[in-house]
Amino acid sequence: MLAKPFIKWVGGKSQLLEEIREKYPHKIEKYCEPFVGGGAVLFDILSTKQPKTILINDINKELINTYSQIKNSCDGMISQLSEIQAIYKLHSPEENKTFFYEKRQRYNELKVNGNDADNLEKAVLFIFLNKTCFNGLYRVNSKGLFNVPFNNAKNPLLCDERNLKICSELLQNVEMRVGDYKECKDFIDSTTFVYIDPPYRPLTRTADFTSYSENGFTDKEQIELGNFITEISNKGAFVVASNSDPKNSDINDEFFDNLYSKFKIERVSAARMINSNAKKRGAIKELLISNIASIF
């Protein structure tokens, strides 16, 4: 079964799957994704490699809740999303804008005051907001409240029933955690394939659109992540990581070249999709970092 991500995610890897697939081990029995995000690589591996043991993690608890609800309450999610989709189709654009902000407020209320009984509703709203907000961006303010504006989508597919059911089936054997990526270390061993897609290093001071938690991801955190990747590589894990290429904006910026000097670094073309100015969207370089040379 071939599944695709059930949400649009900034930095999602659907467009780079061909390049990342080239780095898959021939056989994957154990898989870990410490920053699961939209799950493009996850669903590709679940669909094609069928690993026996899988761990996904993200610091964004509402994202992991949505994965969990698709896994455990898929029929209820489809029912509620279908109802919202029917309402959305009947509304005028102005009514849909009002509807969006009402649902955004409800989602934030549940984030602050909700309990486990509200988890399905939160997951439904998470998908609805993702499909109807600006560029599918997930951004929160310092209080952790979702604050992305409406995108005037005319006919978004809010309930992809077939794909949700396929995703649900594939997720049945997946362990899910909420927390810092470092907490995955106990799971990772010499039999594990690890794909790491962290918040990217911004190419410019104004380009940081990736804040999906209250905490930032600065150069200090990038260096800590580099140390983590070195540590799990030394354990024998097969590691592939993605990040932005600083040389897009400064040819002399050697930040990642220095940080990952002992790893194989490839520069691949990717499309920049989230700039508000469509003329500034286009092909840029991203990094694929791996320890493939030290394993084979």
Describe the protein in words:
The protein is globular. The protein contains ten helices and seven strands. The chain has 296 residues and is an alpha/beta fold. The chain folds into two domains: 14-59 and 179-295, Rossmann fold; 68-162, Orthogonal Bundle (Adenine-specific Methyltransferase, domain 2), CATH 1.10.1020.
What oligomeric state do these chains adopt? single chain
Helix and strand composition category = alpha/beta
CATH superfamily of the largest domain: Vaccinia Virus protein VP39
Query: For the residues shown, what is the average pLDDT?
Result: 91
The CATH topology of the largest domain comes to Rossmann fold
Distance between the termini: 30 Å
List unreliable stretches of 5+ residues: 206-212, 274-281
Number of strands: 7
Strand order of the largest sheet: 3-2-1-4-5-7-6
Quickly count the domains: 2
Instruction: Provide the β-strand percentage band.
Output: 5-15%
Compact summary:
By secondary structure, this protein is α/β, with parallel strands linked by helices.
What order do the helices and strands come in, and which of them pair?
Layout: H1 17-21, E1 30-33, H2 40-48, E2 53-58, H3 61-72, H4 74-90, H5 93-113, H6 119-132, H7 161-170, E3 174-178, E4 192-196, H8 219-234, E5 238-244, H9 255-259, E6 264-271, E7 283-290, H10 292-295
Parallel strand pairs: 1-2, 1-4, 2-3, 4-5
Antiparallel strand pairs: 5-7, 6-7
